[in-house]
């Protein structure tokens, strides 16, 4: 991998920094672009090594989603509501890295649903939960016709990929004109990520290879021909997230009301459109 320039903006102004984890002393070596805020592991591994790590991780963490998690006001349904308002029609939708099918299952009727999932364990659960067409394997080998889909989603996927640009290029090629792309990842420049520093969960996961800022993600998406429609920053409700139970409840009310247009929180959702 070329660590002499940023993979997003091609700047040569890079800072090399080690994130040291407090609990076990493990080190995450980063190459950080000073211009767009994009960061990558400076010990990036090969595509084959990456697939082995990703598949094993998902096999071990595949849990059937509870039906209650798919209903309003849980996040999958809130995201589905927003998508259904944004899409021109309910057509063919593909979820890349669909996991156990939570996001696809939260969608209403009228969609023809497809998913791609590395983990055979998660893919089997997704088939049972969603009744969608699920391809078990990497997106690089998924055989789909160009201009196939009205919507493509990739939630918490792009940070796992050896070549994040491939995901965007593939999505552009396989979306119909006017089709919608939704990418969700962490925003390393958000107030939450900055406050947590080495404790930020996205840094801690060994299977994460790229760390985006809102600036770098929007720039990369635009470079592949998309028009960015909007960005949302949503709260991380995990037990290790910042804030008391009351604070988290307050953030949930704000999320339900749609008051989330702020880079305070670290879960970034970017909505983009392929030109008509």
SSE sequence, one letter per element: EEEHHEHEHEEHEHHEHEHE
Give the strand line-up of the largest sheet.
6-5-4-7-8-11-10
CATH topology: Rossmann fold
So, the CATH homologous superfamily?
Vaccinia Virus protein VP39
CATH architecture, please?
3-Layer(aba) Sandwich
Helix content: 25-40%
Largest sheet: 7 strands, mixed
Mean pLDDT across all amino acids: 90
Number of DSSP strands? 11
**Distance between the first and last residues' Cα:** 35 Å
The count of helical stretches stands at 9
General description of the model:
This protein has 276 residues and is an alpha/beta fold. The protein has one domain (14-274): Rossmann fold, CATH 3.40.50. It is 31% helix and 25% strand. The protein has helices at 47-60, 75-86, 102-106, 120-130, 164-174, 191-196, 201-204, 214-223, 245-257, and strands spanning 14-20, 27-33, 39-41, 92-96, 112-117, 133-136, 149-155, 175-186, 210-211, 226-234, 267-274. It has a seven-stranded mixed β-sheet with strand order 6-5-4-7-8-11-10, with helices on both faces. A four-stranded antiparallel β-sheet has the order 1-2-3-9. It is globular, with a radius of gyration of 18 Å.
Entry summary:
With 276 residues, this protein is α/β, with parallel strands linked by helices. 31% of the residues lie in helices and 25% in strands. It has one domain: 3-Layer(aba) Sandwich (Rossmann fold), CATH 3.40.50.
Topology of this structure?
Elements: E1 14-20, E2 27-33, E3 39-41, H1 47-60, H2 75-86, E4 92-96, H3 102-106, E5 112-117, H4 120-130, E6 133-136, E7 149-155, H5 164-174, E8 175-186, H6 191-196, H7 201-204, E9 210-211, H8 214-223, E10 226-234, H9 245-257, E11 267-274
Parallel strand pairs: 4-5, 4-7, 5-6, 7-8
Antiparallel strand pairs: 1-2, 2-3, 3-9, 8-11, 10-11
């Amino acid at each position: 991998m070329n660590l002499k320039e940023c993979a997003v903006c091609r700047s040569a102004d890079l800072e090399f920094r080690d994130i040291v984890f407090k609990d076990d002393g493990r080190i995450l070596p980063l190459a950080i672009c000073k211009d767009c805020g994009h960061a990558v592991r400076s010990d990036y591994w090969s595509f084959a090594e990456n697939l082995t790590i990703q598949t094993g991780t998902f096999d071990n963490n595949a849990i059937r989603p509870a039906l209650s998690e798919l209903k309003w006001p849980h996040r999958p349904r809130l995201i589905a509501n927003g998508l259904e308002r944004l899409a021109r029609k309910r057509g063919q939708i593909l979820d890349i890295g669909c996991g156990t099918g939570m996001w696809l299952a939260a969608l209403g009727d009228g969609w023809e649903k497809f998913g791609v999932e590395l983990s055979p364990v998660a893919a089997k659960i997704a088939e049972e939960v969603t009744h969608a067409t699920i391809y078990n394997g990497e997106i690089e080998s998924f055989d789909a016709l160009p201009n196939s889909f009205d919507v493509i989603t990739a939630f918490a996927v792009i940070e796992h990929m050896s070549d994040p640009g491939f995901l965007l290029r593939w999505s552009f090629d396989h979306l119909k004109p006017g089709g919608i792309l939704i990418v969700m990842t962490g925003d390393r420049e958000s107030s939450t990520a900055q406050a947590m520093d080495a404790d930020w969960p996205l840094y801690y996961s060994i299977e994460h290879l790229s760390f985006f800022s809102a600036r770098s993600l929007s720039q990369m998406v635009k470079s592949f021909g998309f028009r960015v429609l909007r960005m949302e920053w949503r709260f991380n409700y995990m037990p290790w997230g910042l804030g008391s139970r009351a604070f988290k409840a307050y953030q949930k009310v704000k999320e339900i009301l749609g008051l989330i247009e702020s880079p305070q929180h670290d879960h970034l959702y970017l909505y983009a459109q392929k030109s008509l």
